[in-house]
Description:
96 residues; mainly alpha; 91% helix
Amino acid sequence: MMFHQVILGFAVLGVVINLIAFVIITKKKDKTMFHDLLKILTAYDVGVVICCALQFALPNLWPAYYLNIYPHIMPYLVPVMHVTVLTSVYSTILIR
Length: 96
């Protein structure tokens, strides 16, 4: 049970940190392509942590979600999660 709470805690922390990073990068005065790629990376990272929370944490912590919502979003959640993970990896490669 505690494993799922840790996942949810890290997901919330990841969303908050990535949103703060996005705001800081957006307010930067001298923007380059590097900053645009960092904004893309933070946006996709938010998607990754939200998908992970929806996939791995919430079904075990919230029974109503598991019974009523999870079966309907599962066919869409897995492909969206894979796309966000791959685009996060590809944008990381573009930054290097």
